[in-house]
């Protein structure tokens, strides 16, 4: 065996260096270099994988018919763009305890007539069995392997010829062709590409589970994000049961889609109609609450914006946001100061999007402004009214995309009125809706209708 050679490798992006450096020049992250043993000092090992590559005109390439594998978990299939593409590699990332293993196992159990190889380097076969009993019925086609050694895994795959491979987690897999320890970027990269070579060839889809680090990135491997076809992020607030799965990369579909689940005692339950759970059930109108019609991917849903405005006790007023961008809140408050005499300097403002979800959609601006004003004036809004418009710096009520879908959702949920921008009027066929659509061009017009007593604060 040749002399051992070590290299310092950035665990974030895979860049290499002969000596330790504090900050990676390639990706700019701090403190990411660790020493890894690089096997052999000779020339780089040749790949054993050979293909007969031929040059083809793009028009002559025949698209193979790629029938997607439906997992039966609708939210998951929709997110992928209609099921798993043969030979594709899907990476599910998320914080520990968020439910990645549960989701993967649930998929394995749903695919009753497919042979699924479920590899776990994190839990014993018994633990997996206990979990399976909790979330559904096991079936004979779900094969569990508790191993982390890549060569074993590939042998088992060749032997069983599964229809789907699930690997929980990629960080635990290692190959002895490299001497660096499991979990290092070199190991992850090598294992992933070896798995990929095998499964792409055979047309088997793979679901990889990946940990994320403190900063919320997929641990180590940015490299991994380049290799895989689909990257799904599993998110949620610790104190809420809701879990959101979103695609941040998808070679076979849109990335704007979003799947919502609820963690129950018997695994993850799909939330097919998010509005119903995201709206709190209140009997009386309360001040500071406004319902907004938002959109995630192609699906509209209604969310509740809650604001609390109180007199500032300290010199600097407090601003706090959950689920909404604080800079955007500050901007909207400034608009309020100009347009409604809201005295920014003496008020604390707290804003919360109910249900623990995060919204980036500018269409909730109007809902935010109105909820703040409602709390400040202590005038509740009517329960049957909702909002869908962006607000500009000069207080103009701006149009938003897919307004018909938003209005449709509000109507479906029994709302009587929806405030939208008058610039959305064009092309909108109002005769098809029962719901009353109120058009506004300026925030003042909205305020006047909602808070008839005026907007002095
Ligand atoms: P898990 O899938 O192990 O998370 P990850 O693989 O992302 O680390 O999920 C762990 C959490 O989910 C754990 O705190 C228990 C909870 N859970 C339920 O509430 N109900 C269930 O049916 C299952 C299987 C787990
Ligand atoms: Mg797990």
Map the helices and strands:
Layout: E1 5-10, E2 16-17, E3 33-38, H1 74-80, E4 89-94, H2 100-110, E5 116-120, H3 125-135, E6 142-145, H4 150-160, E7 164-168, H5 185-202, E8 206-211, H6 222-227, E9 230-235, E10 242-250, E11 258-264, E12 267-270, H7 274-278, E13 289-296, E14 299-311, E15 319-322, H8 326-340, E16 347-353, H9 365-377, E17 385-388, E18 390-391, E19 397-398, H10 403-412, E20 417-421, E21 436-440, H11 443-450
Parallel strand pairs: 4-8, 4-9, 5-6, 5-7, 7-8, 13-17, 15-16, 17-20, 20-21
Antiparallel strand pairs: 1-2, 1-3, 9-10, 10-11, 11-12, 13-14, 14-16, 18-19
Bound molecules: thymidine-5'-diphosphate and magnesium ion.
Thymidine-5'-diphosphate binds next to helix 2 and helix 3.
Describe this structure in words.
The protein is built from eleven helices and 21 strands. The protein has helices at 74-80, 100-110, 125-135, 150-160, 185-202, 222-227, 274-278, 326-340, 365-377, 403-412, 443-450; strands at 5-10, 16-17, 33-38, 89-94, 116-120, 142-145, 164-168, 206-211, 230-235, 242-250, 258-264, 267-270, 289-296, 299-311, 319-322, 347-353, 385-388, 390-391, 397-398, 417-421, 436-440. A nine-stranded mixed β-sheet has the order 6-5-7-8-4-9-10-11-12, with helices on both faces. Helix 2 (100-110) packs across helix 3 (125-135) and helix 8 crosses helix 9. The model has no long low-confidence stretch (mean pLDDT 86). The chain binds thymidine-5'-diphosphate and magnesium ion. Thymidine-5'-diphosphate is lined by residues 94, 96-102, 131, 134-135, 263, 265-267.
């Amino acid at each position: 065996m040749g002399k051992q050679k070590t290299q310092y490798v950035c665990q974030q992006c895979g860049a290499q260096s002969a000596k330790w450096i504090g900050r990676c020049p390639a990706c700019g992250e701090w403190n990411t270099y660790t020493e890894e043993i690089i096997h052999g000092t000779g020339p780089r090992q040749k790949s054993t994988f050979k293909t007969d590559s031929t040059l083809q005109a793009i028009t002559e390439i025949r698209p193979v018919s790629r029938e997607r594998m439906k997992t039966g978990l609708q939210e998951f299939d929709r997110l992928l763009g209609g099921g798993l593409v043969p030979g594709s590699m899907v990476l599910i990332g998320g914080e520990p305890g968020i439910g990645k293993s549960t989701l993967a196992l649930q998929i394995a159990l749903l695919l009753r007539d497919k042979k699924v190889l479920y590899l776990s380097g994190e839990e014993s076969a018994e633990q997996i069995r206990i979990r399976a009993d909790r979330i559904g019925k096991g079936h004979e086609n779900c094969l569990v392997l508790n191993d982390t050694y890549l060569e074993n895994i590939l042998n088992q795959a060749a032997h069983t010829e599964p229809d789907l491979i699930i690997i929980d987690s990629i960080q635990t897999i290692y190959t002895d062709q490299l001497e660096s320890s499991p979990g290092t970027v070199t190991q992850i990269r090598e294992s992933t590409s070896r798995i990929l070579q095998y499964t792409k060839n055979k047309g088997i889809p793979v679901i990889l589970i990946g940990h994320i680090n403190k900063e919320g990135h997929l641990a180590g491997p940015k490299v991994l994000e380049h290799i895989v076809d689909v990257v799904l992020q599993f998110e949620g607030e610790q104190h809420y049961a809701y879990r959101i799965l979103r695609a941040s990369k998808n070679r076979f579909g849109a990335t704007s889609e979003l799947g919502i689940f609820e963690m129950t005692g018997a695994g993850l339950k799909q939330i097919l109609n998010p509005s119903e759970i995201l709206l709190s059930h209140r009997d009386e109108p309360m001040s500071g609450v406004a319902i907004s019609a938002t959109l995630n991917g192609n699906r509209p849903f209604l969310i509740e914006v809650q604001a609390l405005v109180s007199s500032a006790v300290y010199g600097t007023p407090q601003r706090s946001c959950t689920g909404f961008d604080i800079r955007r809140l500050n901007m909207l408050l400034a608009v309020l100061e100009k347009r409604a005499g809201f005295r920014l300097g003496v008020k604390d403002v707290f804003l919360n999007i109910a249900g623990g979800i995060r919204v980036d959609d500018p269409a909730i601006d109007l809902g935010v402004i109105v909820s703040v004003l409602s709390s400040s004036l202590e005038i509740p809004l009517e329960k049957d009214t909702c909002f869908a418009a962006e607000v500009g710096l000069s207080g103009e009520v701006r149009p938003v995309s897919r307004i018909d879908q938003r209005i449709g959702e509000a109507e479906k949920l029994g709302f009587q009125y929806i405030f939208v921008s008058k610039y959305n009027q064009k092309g909108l066929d109002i005769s098809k809706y029962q719901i009353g659509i109120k058009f506004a061009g300026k925030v003042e017009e909205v305020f006047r209708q909602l808070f008839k007593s005026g907007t002095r604060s």
